[in-house]
Amino acid sequence: MKLTNFIDGKWQEAGEERYTAVLNPANGEQLAKVRMSTKEEVDLAVAAAVKAQKKWALVPAPKRADYLYEIGRLMKEKKEHLAQVLTKEMGKVIEEGRGEVQEGIDMAFYMAGEGRRLFGETTPSELADKFAMSVRAPIGVVGLITPWNFPVAIATWKSFPAIVAGNAFIWKPATETPMMAYEMAKIFEEVGLPPGVANVVFGSGSEVGTAMIEHPDVKVISFTGSTETGSKVAELGGRHLKKVSLEMGGKNAVIVMDDADLQLAVEGILWSAFGTAGQRCTACSRVIVHKDVKSELESMLLAQMENLTIGDGLDETVKIGPVINKQALEKIHSYTKIGQEEGAKLLAGGHVLADGDLANGNYYAPTLFTDVSSNMRIAQEEIFGPVVSLIEVSSLEEAIEVNNGVKFGLSSSIFSRDINNVFRAQRDLDTGIVYVNAGTTGAEIHLPFGGTKGTGNGHRDSGVAALDVYTEWKSIYVDFSGKLQRAQIDTE
Ligand code: NAD
């Protein structure tokens, strides 16, 4: 199977034959070959988008929204198929694959509702016989760059608000997970979106991503990925005066206080640390635990980690799938060595799994470090694998300080039954998302998603806040007095 670009409503490519293999991380099997596009193809897509967007912006928003309702309906109809494709190319277990597709469906219906809202403001004027209002205006052509860990949900958080607001888009998915983008392009075609409104261009970040950012007709770049790549995107985007929205890495923590329901905390930690094999941007990679419950929590975690079955995510009994590729395995394992060299105590895992059926895939044992201090690299850097570090603290204040003492600010959580602890924590935790008595994952699409500090640059995906990325505010004054009225001067 060859995955070809979707440009101007057609499956097309231009230039030399260049493809790369898409591998199933569970067993190394080749699933497809994907086009590695050139700047020429980006130019084609942008030209098509520019042309289409002019007409699209004039389609009434509720009519634009009708396409989203149809996209949501089709995604629902194909949910199981999409989840299977997602699990095969990305590796997350099938239950989570279904959950991710559901997130996309929810986003379609939610953003379709925006077609009849897209609220602006009406406000009194300081002058008589004058009307004042502000409306959201589309920006034009937007470029979407997405990571492999949520190959469909993140794209829906970006593309659906973009199109309901009257923009056209070019989407460059991660090279590791193009199949979901291909499936979505088929859905865009099936619902009959006008050619050029939705374009998918496959290829590398350095070639396709750069060409999108540098193209003068791409007005917005919405990027999700690592902080390292995001800063390059911001730098290049800045030079070209682009509006750049960045959602980047995390180093998320669960705080467990001495009055917590420990069994609930263990369940929350296991789900948010080892789900998606620790490759969620919101994955829990630090547990900040009160000294009075540390040893009990350690024993409970160790006991329950035994039940985490590891294998191909298509097997319904499996709880943890593979990591994305061999480089990821090496990176994760290098952090195990770093942790040991730094003096942290390895309680479980810390090695590659390659026995029997696991031999051809990329599997890492769920790993637990304890006696970690907050300045160690394993407590500071994003590992992006099934590795958790336990850090002991003596008070809520210290827990909050440790939580906030990293360069990222995506998600945090506190387990406590003391209402005062909970309210102090939700106020003082410096992250874009805070959970109380739940792990660090579980965002819902109608709330803003994003983080502070090194995780983002002030924009948000999903929720109504996403519309701010894809719209400009336009203020409109209508004077019906029939005479010149000067603001700030003729007010008496
Ligand atoms: P990545 O930064 O390697 O790649 C992300 C995307 O950027 C890919 O499509 C890639 O091809 C592209 N890219 C690479 N170099 C580029 C360049 N020079 N110019 C333009 N585009 C370029 O990230 P990844 O490994 O795919 O994803 C994992 C990272 O994403 C983790 O750090 C994770 O925390 C982060 N993430 C963040 C969020 C969030 O909402 N904050 C959500 C999911 C993932």
From TrEMBL:
EC main group: oxidoreductase
Catalytic reactions on record: (2S)-3-sulfolactaldehyde + NAD(+) + H2O = (2S)-3-sulfolactate + NADH + 2 H(+)
Sorted UniProt keywords: NAD, Oxidoreductase
Record keyword Zinc present: no
InterPro entries reported for this sequence: Ald_DH/histidinol_DH (IPR016161), Ald_DH_C (IPR016163), Ald_DH_CS_CYS (IPR016160), Ald_DH_CS_GLU (IPR029510), Ald_DH_N (IPR016162), Aldehyde_DH_dom (IPR015590), ALDH7A1-like (IPR044638)
Residue ranges of domain Aldehyde dehydrogenase in the record: 11-476
Oxidoreductase is among the record's keywords: yes
EC number: 1.2.1.3, 1.2.1.97
Binding partners and assembly: Homotetramer.
Function description: Part of the sulfo-TAL (or sulfo-SFT) pathway, a D-sulfoquinovose degradation pathway that produces sulfolactate (SL). Catalyzes the oxidation of 3-sulfolactaldehyde (SLA) to sulfolactate (SL).
Protein name: 3-sulfolactaldehyde dehydrogenase
